Amino acid sequence: MINDIIIWELNAIAISFFKGVYLAWIYDNIRVYRRIIRHKTVIFMSIEDIAYGIYAGINVFIMCFRVTDGIIRGFVVTGIAVGMFLYFKFLSCIYIKWSVRIINFLLKPVLFVLKKIFSIITIPVRSLKTVFTRRMSMHGKHSQE
Most buried of the four, 29, 30, 79, 115, by CB within 10 Å? Predict the structure, then answer.
C-alpha cells in the first residue's frame, strides 16, 4: 500500500519535472525566434508572452488533472519549478546559441535566393518608377518655362 503511494508520488514528480523542462524548452524556442526575427515593439513580445503563459497554464492544468486528479500538490509544483530551473541553468544558453547559429546558417541560402527572386520580380516596377520619375521631371521643366 505505502509502496504504491510512494511510486505514484515519484511518478508524479518525474512527470512534473519533465513538464517543467518541456515548458522551459518551449519558451527557449520563443527566445530563439526573437533573436532571429527582431521585434520592433514590445507589443509583439507581450502578445507572445501572454500566449505562452496561457499555453503553459493549460498544459500544467491538464498535467495536474491527469496525474493528480486535478489536485494541485506542492511536490508537483516543485517538480515543475526544479525542471525549469535546471533547464535554464544548464541547457538554455547552449540551446539558444546553437539553435540561432544553425537556423541562421540554414536561412542564408534561402534569403539569398529570395532576394534574387525579389530583385527579378521588381524589375518592371523599378522600370516604371524610372519612367514615371523622368516624366515628372520633364513635366516640371516644361511648366517652369
Answer: 79
Residue 76 vs residues 41, 55, 81, 91, 92: alpha-carbon distances, Å: 36, 18, 9, 22, 22
Q: What is the CA radius of gyration of the chain?
A: 27
Q: Give the domain ranges of the chain.
A: 2-90
Asked whether the whole model's pTM tops 0.70, one would answer yes
